[in-house]
Amino acid sequence: xxxxxxxxxxxxxxxxxxxxxxxxxxxxxxxxxxxxxxxxxxxxxxxxxxxxxxxxxxxxxxxxxxxxxxxxxxxxxxxxxxxxxxxxxxxxxxxxxxxxxxxxxxxxxxxxxxxxxxxxxxxxxxxxxxxxxxxxxxxxxxxxxxxxxxxxxxxxxxxxxxxxxxxxxxxxxxxxxxxxxxxxxxxxxxxxxxxxxxxxxxxxxxxxxxxxxxxxxxxxxxxxxxxxxxxxxxxxxxxxxxxxxxxxxxxxxxxxxxxxxxxxxxxx
Amino acid sequence: xxxxxxxxxxxxxxxxxxxxxxxxxxxxxxxxxxxxxxxxxxxxxxxxxxxxxxxxxxxxxxxxxxxxxxxxxxxxxxxxxxxxxxxxxxxxxxxxxxxxxxxxxxxxxxxxxxxxxxxxxxxxxxxxxxxxxxxxxxxxxxxxxxxxxxxxxxxxxxxxxxxxxxxxxxxxxxxxxxxxxxxxxxxxxxxxx
Lengths: 268, 193
What we know:
The complex is a heterodimer of chains A (268) and B (193).
Chain A: H1 2-11, H2 22-38, H3 42-57, H4 62-89, H5 98-120, H6 124-133, H7 138-167, H8 174-179, H9 181-209, H10 217-220, H11 231-253
Helix pairs in contact in A: 2-5, 2-11, 3-5, 3-11, 4-5, 6-7, 7-9
Chain B: H1 9-13, H2 23-47, H3 52-72, H4 78-94, H5 100-117, H6 126-149, H7 157-187
Helix pairs in contact in B: 2-3, 2-4, 3-6, 3-7, 4-5, 5-6, 6-7
């Protein structure tokens, strides 16, 4: 699976955002998430949404973006129906209308727009280099590396477990999850738990034998292709800051929400 | 005279540790993070995200994995490190939201503090207490974060609260299944401490 995923990643055409360092994309994600939560005016959210959508479109994976939006719409629709149903049953409970859902929806859409390019544009090797370039402590770097490296292996293991379940006449389906949760737990979880324990023992002993420690492993190792913070990264972060500033300005000038109440007290 | 517990081979190999966690402990943490993340993802995809049984099940699996992992690695700070690594990889690889990090990290710190107040993770019930407090506090803090996101339409918090409550019920059951799994693993000699 790893080989296939690597192949599929390498076959995809490069897009404008791919040359950016992971650190700059992480900075923009954190900035956008903070600003979108702090601001409350629809105009400000629209500015943020427009800018983040442009960034998300550089991912050139419209299908993934549409799937994420469809999931968001589905969840919002279900929550809306649930609130309306509960309000019909218990009138004391608060209800919602479409107008009041605009800002929360835009907020979630902004978060999707900034997180998707970060998650779907990074190759595994780039991520490992990025983790190293973030100068994280060894105690964070090693588990994160093991986790990233083992996700494809565990995905393969889960596929094998699912095949075994099929051989025993049990399919992992929504119906079976609903009707036989104990069986799903036993058939899926127990083999994975033992596999995890065995892998961790073997790998842990191997790491100890290789002398992996904070003063050896991280310091001496040099990445094959070191990630660098370039001028485009600086420009990208500056553009994000400008977009955040423009959104804040919109809130101050166009909206009737007072600037002091624009954040946490912005309920209206 | 009670027989002292047999130390694991890596602990014998590296008596002079320069870190709080040995490489072996960190690898256990990484492997369990990957396993917990993927198994919950598979259950969520197979059962449909909004299926209440799936919500229970995936939280149950995650908590069980966490309890087993904490019984394997009983160093103070392991829960915080687990959450940190999980959130970092989720953000970079799986599209996790940045806004979840403060509530998860806050919950982990509270869990560690509760375990510390009760005598530390090395106590027999230390890991279960830490995970229990972590689950409860992170869910409450997540609800607070949801309020921040949905504060324009507070009515929307009702279904969110129902979903979080269902998730917590699964996590609560996971504490018991985790203890049971650890008991079986200890009986089999896989968890030694």
